[in-house]
Every structure is written in C-alpha cells, then in structure tokens.
Write a structure and sequence with these properties.
The chain has 29 helices and 13 strands. The protein has about 725 residues and is an alpha+beta fold. Among the domains are: about 160-335, Transferase(Phosphotransferase) domain 1 (Transferase(Phosphotransferase), domain 1, Orthogonal Bundle); about 405-460, no CATH class; about 565-615, no CATH class; about 645-720. The strands form three sheets. An eight-stranded antiparallel β-sheet has the order 2-1-5-6-7-8-10-9. It has a three-stranded antiparallel β-sheet with strand order 11-12-13. Strand 9 (about 140-145) and strand 10 form a beta hairpin. Helix 5 (about 175-195) runs antiparallel to helix 8 and helix 21 (about 520-530) runs antiparallel to helix 22. It is globular, with a radius of gyration of 29 Å. The protein starts with a helix and ends with a helix. It binds adenosine-5'-triphosphate (ATP). It comes from Lentisphaera araneosa HTCC2155. GO terms for molecular function: ATP binding; protein serine/threonine kinase activity. InterPro entries: Kinase-like_dom_sf (IPR011009), Prot_kinase_dom (IPR000719), Protein_kinase_ATP_BS (IPR017441).
Length: about 725
C-alpha cells in the first residue's frame, strides 16, 4: 500500500513537472523542427513524419524531414550534429547550441527508462544537483529538459577521447600522464564531495575524458542514482563495499580510481573475468604487483595506488583531498620519477606520509608551540642568567645565529596554527621562505618545508585569496557585460597591457610578458600598447625583441615528447599546430634571454609534467605560475627579479581571475534567466554565493547579485500565477 502511495505521488509529481515543462516549451509533441541543409534556418513542421518532403520557408529548398536525432534534428535549443556513443542511460550526440554558439553533448534517455516516472524524477533531481557543480575537471552540466517525450541532459562537449580509448590505443600510459590524470580527477571528486556531498560511484576509464589540451574531465558525476537504476554498474571497478551492498562514500571512488590507475599503468585491470569471479577477487584477492607488469612505475606511486585499492575503506585515503596532496608531493619531490632515485627515496622517507602526519601534527602543534615558547623563555632566561652570572661556563653560550634562528622559528610556529586569512597566509608564506633562505640546513628547515606546503594549500585550495580582492569595480554593469562579451583573450591582453604600462620595473614587465606569451596574447598586447596613449617605445622594443626570440625558440623546438605529440595529433591537430601548442606552453617558462634552457633545468622531465602543473590549477593559474617561478629560483637563473614584488603580482592575478570567474557565474545566471530557465539561473546564483558570499568581491557586487536574484524570483512567481 505504502509503495503504491509513493508511486502515485511520484506519478503525480511527474505529471505536474511535465505540465510545467510543456507549458514552457510550446513546441512539445506536435511541432518537429530541423535545420535546413541549404540556408541553415530552422524549419518547423506540424506533425511531420520522418522521410516526408517539405519546403524550407526561408529559401524554398525541398527537404526530407529527418528522424529524431538524425543530423539537423532540433530539440530545445540544440541542433544535432552526430551520434557519438551509447551508454547505459541512453544515446549520446554531439549537438550545437545556436543561442550560445557552443558545442554540447546531448544525452537522451532510453525509452525504457523514460517510461518509469520515478526514474525520470530521479534523473531530473540528480541533473539539477550536477548542474550546481562547477569545476574545470568536471564535465559541466548545462540543462535538463523534455521535448516530444524525449528526456535529455545537455552537458559540455569534450573534444577529445576517453581514457578507455587511450588505454586501448597505447597499452600502458606514461607515469607522468597517469599522475596528472589522478591529480585532476582527485581535485574534481574532492570538490564534488566537499561541496555537494556527491560521490561519483561509477569511476572508470569510459567516464574520464581527455580534451585536446590534455585537460582531464570526469563525466556523469551526480548521476549515481539514475545510473544504478539502469544497471548494476561496471563490476570491474566496483569497490568491495558496493559489492556487499554496504553504504558507499567517496572512498568507493578512491578504490575505483585506484583500479583505473592500475589499468592505465599496466594495460590490464587487476581483476578480470565474469562478474561472479571478479566480485570474489575484489573481496578476497590481492592484485598482481604493478611492478611485475610495468617495472618503470616508481615505488612511491605503487604505494599510493596500493593504498587506494585497499579492500577496507578505512585503509584507503580518507578523502580525495588527502590523495591529491600525496600526488602533489609525489610529483614535486620525486624528481625525474626514476624507479630507483635515491633522491626520491630520501624525500619520501621523511615527507611522503606528510598528509597523514599532518593531522597528528596539528594536534601536536599546540604542544609544539608551548614547547617552542618554553625554549624561547629558557633561552631568554639563559641569556639573562648568562649576562648576570659571569661564572657560567662560556662553552654553553648559544651562538648568535642560533639565537636569531630560534627566535624567528618561535614567531613562525606561533602564527602557523592560527586560522589565517589569505593575506596572513601569504605573509606567512613569505616569512617561511625567508627563514628557509636564511637557514636552509637548520634542524627546523624540514618543519618549515611542511608548513610552507600547508600554507600554500590554504592559498590554493580554499581560494581564500578572493577575500582580499579589494579593487573597486568602476565599470558600469553594461560596460562590464561588454568586456565579458569580448573574448577572454582580448580581455586578458588589455588588462595586461595596462598592467605592463603601469609597472615601473623592466623585470616585472618581462615577467608579465613571459608568462603570457603562451596565451598568444603577445601580438594583441603589442598592438594595444602601440595604440595606447602611454606608448613607451623602449618597452615596446623590448617586447618586440622577446617576441622575435620567442619565435626562434618556437621554430627550433625538437618534438621529443612523443606522448603529448601523439595525443594532440590524434585529436586532429597537425604537426604545425602541435609545435605551436607545445611552444606556447614552453614560452610560459622560457623568457627571451634564457632561450637555451631546457625543461630539465626546471626539474621537469617533460612537457607533460609541465602541463600537469599548469592544468592542475586552471583557476589559480597565477599561483601555478608561482610554482614555475620557484623552479627558476632553484636554478638561480633569475637573480635580478625581486620575488616579493612578483608574488604580489601573481596573487593579484589570482584575484583578477576570481573576478572573471565570479562574472561568469553572474553571466550564466543572467543568460539562463533570459532563456526562462529560472531553475538553472537560481543554481548559478546559489553556486556563486557558496563560493564567494564571504568575500569582498561579493560585498562589492552584492547589489548586482540581489537585483538579478529579484528578477529571477519575479519571473518564477509570474509563471506560477499564469
Ligand atoms: N561530454 C561529452 N563529450 C564528448 N563525448 C562524450 C561526452 N559524454 C560522453 N561522451 C562519449 O559518449 C559515449 C557514451 O557515454 P556515456 O556517458 O553515455 O556512457 P559510458 O560512460 O560509456 O557508460 P555508462 O553509461 O556506463 O556511464 C562515450 O564514448 C563517451 O566517451
């Protein structure tokens, strides 16, 4: 009885939902639309039958009415271009959204699924939650709708291939590529879990997409419920707790990603066979050691993957955040990732379990602070006693340098566990750096390195840098809209031009340019500068020289990174384009004067590892540049440049990017509202608030957010009345 009641309620809800959707969508059912193959205009036919001949109202061409989802078929705002694949939930098409001028992937639910109201309800509910996620490594969900009895989900189209295809093509993936992949997925799933409490529950190579810039994107996140209604999931990647029907959380995804990494590195899944055998193996058997199948995998990476694949969730990483931290350490400290590197071994002995140690360390830090304070007090007492009692044995006199060091360390350790804002974190970061530079081999250096890591994490992961975005927005709303309507590239160049002109130091200017040459902005920047009132011929000449040198480097690049090369060529990029993509990346680190440097100078093995660094933090691009900069510093090749000034610039850049991101949300919300998609508009506002509500950026723009929110509310209530 209860079940019947629930089903009836669901049906009723679905009915209401359909009525609303049908109301919003006037074309439902009767009108069939498609694109004229001759003039490109949309053709509408009432009760059109596939194959039937009709005339285009615009150009008069006689056309054949296409079958649903054939090329040219229009649903909602989307025109189908081609079929790209099938999944358990239905068919996937590449389509084009005319109004927003973008490619999309259209996922259409299978008829069988669409017949069950509770499936549909779940599908809508989950799609809405998924649309709230906004992360560079997650395939963005754009909208969900129904038309003519077809239920569909529209998501970002990823031009590239999935990991399954890549593994099938290449057998085993290179270590660096696998780590990059793991890092990006870990960041994405950490974000989904911490911000929405969403596990993926179907992590597998088919759901990991790699775009043409080698950026990794995970798809189908948030659709766990809908998916599990349609089938049992992919058993080769199922965690023991899923097999046992126990409650599964983010750690089940860690397991599945471990299996995926194992497969990427060895070319084989650890447990193969029929579902019954594989389930048994997941529960009882240990996988064949990775090194037996691929001896080139570094030992530390094997440790990480083995931990991910632990049978019991408690033995795995507790979160993707922890996994990401270890991967970062792995990449940063494992040097060239060689299997026997003593460097790697040494570092990992002391630092690898850092994330695990961190929690204990935090607990200890109060004790540590007390201890350090005690040391300082004792030191001071010692000094007083020493000064007042000349009979004290002079051999125990504390060295002057040591005294200073201990005092500085005490000050540092006291500020380290405070809940720091980004401004404080940044100051702290610089203090730690200064300490390390002054006392590189002191006993406290190790601790400082770990603190530096932690502070950097605050800056990067919690994006607290947004809090001190203080630039008053002087542009009127329309002007800002215009700016945003320009390409990001134009926006960046113009901004940068201004920055460069304002900058007083040549080295700063060079740095700005160096990091942006890679964005193909140099020519635009030069034009902008030449047309600018504040045109500075010396600066312009310098820049021209750098561009000339940059081109020389570009032309002399040897294409030795065959893996990246292969990947890009596979995606239809020709040799010339591949060369320019790679040199664009290189130009991010090599400035005109240092053109003979190779990547190994920066401690990076290949362009892939460079890519890994740059793509891991796309939003915090400026901060990832900081890492590159650190590599410069290590090589002592840029002594003429003042770190502090440059760091401030980088953080400013991060803030500027945050503003851009903020505006994007607002814009998306506005677009959705204009398209009458109040739900999606509201979701953008909710996401915006979640990210920025406590920031100065939000306070500065609150009026704009409020006014848009008000408009959205009004349109919802207006619709409700109708
Ligand atoms: N956003 C996208 N951009 C480009 N291709 C995509 C996108 N989403 C899916 N695809 C491709 O479409 C195909 C089917 O994808 P879909 O997600 O429906 O199924 P699947 O991941 O293969 O299996 P499952 O249904 O078990 O998740 C895959 O080959 C996938 O690579």
């Amino acid at each position: 009885m209860k079940l019947m009641k629930a089903t009836l309620t669901n049906c009723f809800l679905l009915k209401i939902y359909s009525i609303i959707i049908n109301y919003l969508n006037l074309n439902v059912g009767v009108v069939l639309r498609f694109k004229c193959t001759s003039c490109g205009q949309a053709v509408s036919v009432d009760d059109g039958k596939p194959g039937e001949a009709v005339q285009c109202g615009s150009c008069g061409t006689v056309l054949k009415v296409p079958k649903p989802f054939e090329k040219g078929y229009i649903i909602g705002d989307f025109c189908v271009e081609e079929h790209i694949g099938s999944g358990r939930m239905g068919e996937v098409y590449k389509a084009y959204q005319e109004t927003l001028v973008r490619d999309v992937a259209l996922k259409v639910l299978d008829n069988d699924m669409a017949e069950h109201s509770e499936h549909i309800l779940e599908f809508f509910k989950e799609a809405r939650v998924a649309a709230r996620l906004n992360h560079p490594n997650i395939v963005q969900a754009y909208s969900v709708n129904e038309e003519g009895g077809y239920y569909y989900l529209v998501v970002e189209y990823v031009f590239g291939q999935n990991l399954r295809q890549l593994i099938d093509d290449r057998g085993k993936l290179p270590v660096n590529m696998t780590i990059r992949l793991l890092s990006q997925i870990a960041h994405a799933l950490d974000y989904a879990w911490t911000s929405e409490g969403l596990p993926h529950l179907a992590v597998k190579p088919e759901n990991i997409l790699i775009d043409s810039k080698a950026q990794i994107k995970i798809s189908d996140i948030g659709l766990a419920g809908s998916r599990s209604r349609f089938s049992d999931g992919d058993y080769k990647y199922s965690s023991p707790e899923q097999i046992l029907n126990l409650k599964a959380d983010t750690r089940a995804d860690i397991y599945a990603l471990g299996i995926t990494a194992y497969e990427a590195l060895t070319g084989n899944v650890p447990f193969d066979g029929n579902i019954k055998d594989v389930n048994k193996k997941h529960l009882e058997e240990e996988a064949l050691p990775i090194k037996e199948l691929n001896p080139s995998v570094p030992k530390d990476l094997v440790t990480v993957i083995t931990k991910m694949m632990s049978k019991h969730p408690d033995d795995r990483y507790m979160s993707f955040g922890d996994l990401a931290k270890d991967l970062r350490l792995l990449r940063r400290y494992a040097g060239d990732m060689s299997t026997t590197s003593s460097f790697s071994t040494k570092i990992f002995k002391t630092r690898f379990s850092f994330t695990e140690k961190r929690n204990q360390q935090r607990k200890k830090s109060l004790r540590l602070q007390a201890f350090t304070a005690l040391v300082t007090v004792m030191l001071l007492i010692g000094i007083i006693v020493f000064n007042s009692d000349k009979s004290v044995d002079k051999t125990v006199k504390v060295d002057k340098g040591d005294k200073k060091r201990l005092a500085e360390f005490a000050v540092l350790s006291q500020s380290i566990d405070k809940s720091v804002s980004s401004v404080e974190a940044f100051t702290l970061f610089k203090k730690i750096e200064a300490f390390l530079a002054r006392y590189p081999s002191s006993p406290q250096a190790e601790e400082c390195l770990e603190w530096r890591e932690a502070v950097l994490e605050i800056l990067i992961r919690e994006r607290r840098q947004n809090e001190f975005f203080s630039e008053e927005s002087t542009l009127a709303e329309e002007e800002e809209d215009d700016l945003l309507a320009n390409s990001e590239q134009g926006f960046v160049s113009q901004d940068l031009g201004e920055l460069a002109l304002q900058s007083e130091r040549d080295s700063m200017r060079r740095d700005i340019l160096r990091f942006y040459l890679g964005r193909k902005a140099s020519t635009e920047l030069l034009t902008f500068l030449k047309n600018s009132e504040a045109y500075d011929p010396i600066w312009s000449e310098q820049m021209t020289n750098i561009i000339v040198q940059a081109n020389e480097v570009r032309n002399s690049l040897v294409d030795e990174d065959s893996s990246l090369q292969g990947l890009l060529i596979k995606h239809g990029k020709d040799e010339v384009e591949v060369r320019s993509i790679k040199s664009d990346i290189l130009m991010g680190v090599v400035d005109g004067e240092l053109k003979s440097l190779s990547l190994s100078t920066f401690g990076l093995k290949s362009l892939e590892s460079l890519l890994a660094i740059s793509s891991e933090f796309p939003r915090e691009g400026a901060l990832s540049l900081l890492f590159w900069y650190r590599n410069f510093q290590k090589c002592k090749l840029n002594e003429g440049v003042e770190m502090s000034e440059f760091e401030v610039f980088l953080v400013d850049e991060a803030n500027r990017m945050a503003k851009f991101d903020f505006e994007n949300y607002l814009n998306e919300a506005k677009n959705s509202w204009q398209r009458n998609e109040a739900g999606s508009a509201r979701a953008q506002i909710v996401a915006l608030k979640k990210k920025y509500e406590t920031s100065d950026l939000y306070k500065l723009n609150k009026k704009r957010v409020d006014s848009l929110e008000e408009k959205i509310k009004k349109s919802v209530s207006r619709r409700g009345k109708k």
